[in-house]
Amino acid sequence: MKYILIKIIIVMSLIYSQTEDSKPVSFELTIGSGTVSSAVPEFKGQFAVRDASGSQSTYLFTADVAGKDSHTPFNLGLNVDMTELAGMDLGSLDLATSLQFGYSFLDGGAGILNAQVVPNVGYAVNDWLRLGLGFGIGYLEYQIDFDIPRDGPGDIYMTFDETNIYFDEDGMAEATLKKSGLVTAPELSLQIGTESTIGFQIRYQALAHSVALSDPWKMTFRETDEDANTSEGKEEVTIDYEGQYVSELGEPFPELDLSGGLIALELIYRFK
Fold this sequence. Notes:
Blueprint: H1 4-20, E1 27-36, E2 43-50, E3 58-65, E4 74-81, H2 82-85, E5 93-105, E6 110-126, E7 129-149, E8 157-160, E9 163-166, E10 172-192, E11 198-209, E12 218-222, E13 236-240, E14 260-271
Antiparallel strand pairs: 1-4, 1-14, 2-3, 4-5, 5-6, 6-7, 7-10, 8-9, 10-11, 10-12, 11-14, 12-13
């Protein structure tokens, strides 16, 4: 997904700068990786979608994503000590809020995005060990990008939901296939080196995705940057892949369940 990391860094910089102007508060930047025990289905072969024009043309596209028993996200997070922010003293306890982002790079241009807000309660076992219990809520998405070639030399555009998507001079348009929705995630964490600038964190989350196996895939079609029909700007439309849009000329879309357990090992850098 384009520019995801840039957007995350900008958001974190804004949060840090606003707090820095007010009062000293501890921040923790976390970076690391992990493994998620949800299987990624094989997404290979030729697939098809039928448009809603009068001719009901069928457009074919290919995908080449290997199936896996698990996937490996790259994680980036920002933890804020809400106890210090509120000027409270809870002894060995603390209240914190984390912004957690994860992205798994899959084959064939596919990826899985996980973005959460995680309030948590921590207990300082001693000067170098902290146990945390939290509950994450956010957004979990699988997506794959691909190109849609026109049906033939005389094919100018395809139509979805009364929107015409024009092909460019090379006879191509862009499309994204995704399944996304709310994710909830009870979390247990262990931090080592709580008083030093550099520390480590082990996290476990039980990811529960709100999207059911029976929910339709969403497809977004858009015109390319080289589209010749630029007088009204680039068109874009999103549909549910069901009903009139389903074509039997291609392989059936795979079933997807993103729920599973996440185990992550992360490096902590503290700003004080």
